[in-house]
Write a structure and sequence with these properties.
heterodimer, A: 253 residues, alpha/beta, Nucleotidyltransferase, domain 5, 2 domains, five-stranded mixed beta sheet, 8 helices, 39% helix, globular, B: 401 residues, Rossmann fold, four-stranded parallel beta sheet, 17 helices, CoA_E_activase_dom (chain A), Dehydratase_Activator_Redct (chain A), metal-binding (chain A), iron-sulfur cluster binding (chain A)
Amino acid sequence: MISVGLDAGSATTKAVLIKDGRKITQTIRPTAFDFISAAEIAYQEVLDHAGIGKKDVDHVYATGYGRNSIQFADKAISEITTHAKGVYHLYPEVNGIIDIGGQDSKVISVNDGKVTDFLMNDKCAAGTGKFLEYTARALEVPIDDLGSLAFDSETPASITSMCTVFAESEVISLRTRGFTKQDIAAGIIESIARRVAVMARQLELKQNVAFVGGVAKNTAIKSALEKELGISLYVPAEPQITGALGAALYNSN
Amino acid sequence: MLILIRKRLNMHKIPMLFDKMHCFKSLENLKSAYIERIHQVSDERRSGKKSVGTFCLFVPDEIIFAAGADRMILCGGKNDTISIAEQYLPRNICPLVKSSFGSIVNDGCSGVKSCSHFSMVDMIVAENTCDSKKKMYELLDNYVPTYVIDLPQRPDTPEALKYFVTELDKFRDAMEQLTGNKVTNERLRQEIISSNETRKLLHSLYELRKRDPSPISGVDMLKILQKQYFLSPGELKEHLRMLISEVESVEPEGAHRPRIMISGCPMPGGNTKVPEIIEDKGGVIVVEESCTGTRSFWDMVDEDKEPMLALAERYIEIPCSCMSPNDRRIDNILELARDFKVDGVVYYTLQFCHGYNIEKYKVQQALKKAGIPMLFVETDYSNSDVEQIGLRVDAFMEMLS
């Protein structure tokens, strides 16, 4: 049986194609303005990679922010459920998931791949990829350099503002006060980790916790979160695709 | 609103609950009830009858009616009068307080129209519950004479009851002064019996919701609950009787849907956002632990006791989060969850409602212990978070099924 999972996220669109419960291929592309066409292109890409025609696909499942708009999907599933399923496929022993995406962050409590509780921060950009994007801009460094800069800091600056817009101003004021780029970068990373750790503690995630979503690629945030929670985190090789993977696996046990 | 939400969420793939659920004629009748009531109250006022506006379950209806006055609830559920209120009130207080205040002080300059009943009261009967309301009432008095009943905030002490009795006595005097009518014990007893009848009717209706599948949706139920303190008691009872006989005869079809309890803040007329999302996503609301729900009718007033004491005893026990401690609310939630066989609880609060937002923690711990999943939704009257709430509710339904 062949099925495709599509994760129409706010920043990137992901597709995973599986055959008989095994991943064959995947793709990640920017969502841009039109998330329906991004999903269509991602779908076509995995078909092309696998050398499979549309008629051979048994099921298409959609998840992510734009899940309800993908007309050619058989079913729309929330990304909370699909992340749990995708992570379970990779690490069956996991009982907690931290997902930091482009516009929200979530913590999920799981048991054998099933969601037992979850929390989301989606009303405000603090603790999300957007927060990194804005503060990196205020620091005038590319977002990808933020992590390596942070590793070089010995005395991280303290960023206390809960609001992304005000945190941006806070970064600028730290610059004028003579803090180094490294210390401010470390402050930004600590701030996001602190914010997400509060949610993880609320769900009592204590061990076997996976860290997924685009922000999980940032190793400085991973270390800051590990320090904050006092545990080491599982990070998949491709932390962005667990939602699409879980969607593709929706029908299988 | 429902169509709007469906359009925005593009929910073409989600089975519609309301297609399957029965369409109740008595709820259709409610549509014309608003305008009929407006005519009724303006006729009454022309003939000299006084009309008062209330905001809260702590104000005993029985005393108002025994004084020969009429009453209408003034709690605002609409988003568009909030900007009017924000000319006077801080932005960061709850939408209910802002919407109500905006609806009352609205002079029409901004092009926003308030519902007619907001300008049809001779006096407002307010109550000292939360800080936002208390301070808002002080400003409101500049527009409409506002009488405030004080509430003891530690309800479980004997002193509290004594104090509340004296507050209700003063309120009775104020009503006598407004109407020129004497509030006799005899009249109070008649009104207590009448209000208990309404409570019993609501109990019968809720009893039917214990069936699985529930014969009536939560969105439908809310339509009548939102009119509970707007209609005259006679009309309300008429509507309830009709609805009960209709609901009794419905044979509910379809598969089991997750049975949801809503617990938390009230949902005044105009505000149905979260129940619509829950039922659109496949759940069915079977009980509301809120002021637009069980809190309004669950307990009876003792018909055999001295009326003012009986009223004080019943009303002081309303489990509002402004009371401390408020553990009877937790007990009540657990009892309702069991009796209505709920699969999950949606804990619903309005932004900046500190009482219910803080009490969430205790409720969450109690539900966790009882093994009942809970989803927390904090929102306002705008439509800006419909998608985000939709995602949480989707995930919650997937978790429950």
